[in-house]
Amino acid sequence: MKKKNVKTSIVTYDTLVEGYCWTRRVERAFELVDEMKREGIKSNATVCNPIIDALAEAGRFKEVLGIMENFFLCETVPTISTCNSYVKGYYRLTCHLLMKMCEERLDLAVQISKEMRARGCDMDIATTTMSTPFLCKMLRFEEAFEEFEDMLGGGIVPQHLTFHRLNDEFRNRE
Questions:
Q1: Residue 164 burial class via C-beta count within 10 angstroms: exposed 0-12, middle 13-18, buried 19 and up
Q2: 149: which residues sit within 8 A by CB, 6+ positions away?
Q3: Are 56 and 48 a contacting pair, CB within 8 Å?
Q4: At what angle do helices 160-173 and 141-153 cross, to 10 degrees?
Q5: pLDDT tens per residue, range 9-62
Q6: Where does residue 75 fall: left (phi above 0), alpha (psi -120 to 50 degrees), or beta otherwise?
Q7: What is the rounded CA–CA span in Å between residue 68 and residue 1?
Q8: Which DSSP state fits 40?
């Protein structure tokens, strides 16, 4: 666009920032926000919300707080969508901690996982990485395998360790 002297706008940057955040390239999204400022384009919630989502998903909560504080310093009120992004990030952390606390009660941890799914809550890599080995320990291999398939189908790339635990458990049962 710049080579063709097409003027960029907030919509242009919003689209690019969202794309970079969606592909987990939040650092590049920050660079675009800086570029916006240099061009005199004022950021707004539609630009910040994908960044908040990406940072929260990555567990970078201090940076999320910084962005939220910036809203208030700039006398801009965050939107409902902004607040949802903020809370969603803490939801992933909360569910992970809740499941970890139930490690001694594997049946309860698995039940929490199922309940979250039944209510339409997305699982993240942290919770699915925990629930798959829990199911293996409980000798519920079909469910563990389904969990693993759901991970892949949901676009979550399982950790190398999760794959090997599942593979080892199946080999030990043969």
A1: exposed
A2: none
A3: no
A4: 150
A5: 888 888 999 999 888 889 999 999 889 888 888 877 788 888 888 888 777 888
A6: left
A7: 31
A8: T
